[in-house]
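User: Second chain of the day. Same drill as before.
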Amino acid sequence: MSTDPARLGVVLAGGRATRLGGDKAGAKLAGRPLLAHATATVRAAGLLPRVCAREGTWLPSVDVEEWREPLHVTTPVGSEAGATDPSAAAHPLAGLAYALRRAAEPIVALPVDLPFLPAEVLRALAGRTETLVLLASGGRPASLVLRADPVHAESIATAARSGAPALRTLVDLGAVLLDLQQIVPEAPAHALFNVSTAADLTEAHRLLRT
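Assistant: Same format as last time:
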């Protein structure tokens, strides 16, 4: 068990975003890219922001240090030995494993596509002492928002190479579930709204106006 609070808030922005035209981090919401919304949440939580993305992924400029995950990674189990597969790095756990190795200290991680996530969530996760804490809602894992220590980096990387489900993997690794309603009792219903498609982006604009 770790006794150190997390200092770093890492925005995971390395996905292919095919359903949003391939530019999720730069998609504009209220005149700002989603990446800017995410890094603002990290700063509001009192954490130092970092952005983790695959090599070759275009990111809008938000004046935050970028951590670039190598594009070519070992293929999933069962593939030809020594082969590489550019698409394999798109697994969300691959970026998380890379961020843990790069940080070499506890981190709080969040996807780039949660513009309504309350900063209190990240602050609460950062202060936990367990080595792996996953955000939940209604007692169930809710999203890839978590606090993790580097001790889990290799196990997470192995799961990414095998294509294992992200949230199930973290639960199987013993993640403690921290419920959103426990952290922010009055959290809005759209606190975990995920922007993955053009329709989601339209809905996010509507939610901002309500």
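Helices lie at 34-44, 92-103, 119-126, 153-162, 166-172, 180-183, 198-209.

User: Great, on to the next one.
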